[in-house]
Amino acid sequence: MNCMKCGREIALGQVFCKECQADMERYPVKPGTPVILPPPVTPGPSRRNTSRKPRKPEEQLSRLRRLMISLMVLFMIVVAAGTLLIFSLTEKINSLEQTIVSISQEQ
């Protein structure tokens, strides 16, 4: 049998393991209080969906190519945005330098 709380293996006829029992004793429940027990925990294989069919190598290659193209496009967009930002900032810096030079010449 397994503990209904944690799933550890316990002796036949028990409901909870010693650790879970001790934990529950720290928080007693008044008699007559409705208690909902969790469904029994059964240890076993992970819940990962194993019903998926394995992909053919051609499908894997095609999917990898699409991913690489998407990453390349994203990289190009980031580089273009960075270039535009740098160009814009240099234009503003040049404009400010010209303003500073013209103000200093007037004085």
What is the fold's blueprint, element by element?
Elements lengths: L17 H8 L31 H50 L1
Description:
- The chain has 107 residues and is mainly α.
- Helix content is 54%, strand content 0%.
- The protein is built from two helices and no strands.
- The protein has helices at residues 18-25, 57-106.
- It starts with 17 loop residues before the first helix and ends with a helix.
- The mean pLDDT is 86.
Q: So what's the overall shape?
A: elongated
Following the backbone from N to C, one meets helices and strands in this order, namely HH
Would you identify the regions where 5 or more consecutive residues have pLDDT less than 50?
none
> What is the SS-derived class?
mainly alpha
Radius of gyration over alpha carbons? Answer: 34 Å
The total of beta strands comes to 0
The average pLDDT value, as a whole number, equals: 86
Classify the beta-strand content into a percent band: under 5%
Report how far apart the termini are.
93 Å
Main sheet characteristics = none
Descriptive key words:
107 residues; single chain; elongated; 54% helix
Q: Can you give me a brief rundown of this structure?
A:
With 107 residues, the chain is an all-alpha fold. It has helices spanning 18-25, 57-106.
